[in-house]
Amino acid sequence: MNKKVLYWTLQILGWTAYGLLNIYLAYLGERLSTEQAIGQLILVPFYITITHLYRNFIIRNGWLKIIIQKLVVRVVIACLILSIINYAFLFGISSILGLLDPAFDLNPIVIFLSILANLILYFLWSLVYFMYHYVENYNRSLKFDAAMNEIELNNLKSQLNPHFIFNALNSVRALVDEDPVKAKNSITQLSNILRNSLILDKKRLINFNDELNTVIDFLALEKIRYEERLTTEFVIHPDSYKYQVPPLMIQTLVENGIKHGISNLTYGGKLSIETQVDDKKKLNIFIRNSGNFKLDKRRKSKGFGIENTKQRLKLIFDKEASFSIKNEKEGTVLTTLKIPQISY
């Protein structure tokens, strides 16, 4: 149902229901006459018309964009004017139908209470109308923010693929002349990794097991290149497989550890991946690699992989996830990811 149809449906049904309710209450009070019933039925199209004109006035004067403090004053004044018009119309209808009792209907207290009652009625209508638009705009804003986050997230993921492929191809190139057999094996390994990355790239989150398999394949490819200079270790908590992680995130951090840590050491080093599930049901991923973490003070940057990781975590999990990197001890860098559990 589009907005226009919804608006008119609610207008007609709402005011008709209000008119029938007044007739029913008059019936219960044994004050209902044919003239009174006709009067209430005449009021229904009047309410529909006057609130529709009021709506047009709101739109034409841009009240939907006014801050709440200024809006309340304007709405109260508008409802007071509508209430006075409403009383004048009701007074005229009562006169025509012979329902007017001058001693009662012209009493200042009765006039005041009647206008006050109608003011509350029109204010409630205004409240419903503005609340609908507030909720609609809020939902539209959320959808826009979600769309923008998705675009930014896709851009970040698109940065990973060429970066990853470039580094992997460099590893293979180094073996082509040196060891053709190993080069052939590494190409096979690389094709498996690329096939998996292409499948997983379209997803916002993937099973931890799928990411771990990509990391294992990547490390197998790197071990062909580094041989005995690279040793690996995995300590995986059984509950880790219940979690989902952003695709290529752990792989990027592992690659970062090898590139900036182990590759700079004459005798190579060790890279280990350990996972734990803490009391808050978050998956803790610890990546340790030989080397020393140093912040480039000139650029105030911590590297492509780290910045990419931080931005993706913020876009996907907001403040629920965390990331840190530090020197755990001399010669060992610790990278920590904490990821909440998401039902899927």
Description of the molecule:
The longest helix is centred in the middle third of the chain and has 69 residues, at 108-176. Mean pLDDT is 82; it is low at 297-301. The protein has helices at residues 3-28, 34-60, 68-96, 102-105, 108-176, 180-200, 208-226, 249-260, 304-317, and strands at residues 206-207, 230-235, 244-245, 269-277, 283-290, 322-329, 332-339. Strands 2-4-5-7-6 form a five-stranded mixed sheet, with helices on one face. Strands 1-3 form a two-stranded antiparallel ribbon. It is rod-shaped and about 110 Å long. It is built from nine helices and seven strands. It has two domains: 3-142, no CATH class; 179-339, Heat Shock Protein 90, CATH 3.30.565.10.
Write the layout of secondary structure elements.
Blueprint: H1 3-28, H2 34-60, H3 68-96, H4 102-105, H5 108-176, H6 180-200, E1 206-207, H7 208-226, E2 230-235, E3 244-245, H8 249-260, E4 269-277, E5 283-290, H9 304-317, E6 322-329, E7 332-339
Parallel strand pairs: 2-4
Antiparallel strand pairs: 1-3, 4-5, 5-7, 6-7
Helix pairs in contact: 1-2, 2-3, 3-5, 5-6, 5-7, 5-9, 6-7, 7-8
Instruction: Report the sheet-strand fraction.
Output: 5-15%
Radius of gyration: 35 Å
Helical/strand content category: alpha+beta
Reading off the top of the CATH hierarchy, the class of the largest domain is best stated as Alpha Beta
Strand order of the largest sheet: 2-4-5-7-6
Q: Would you kindly provide a brief summary of this structure?
A:
This protein is α+β, with helices and mostly antiparallel strands and 344 residues long. The protein is built from 9 helices and 7 strands, in the order H-H-H-H-H-H-E-H-E-E-H-E-E-H-E-E.
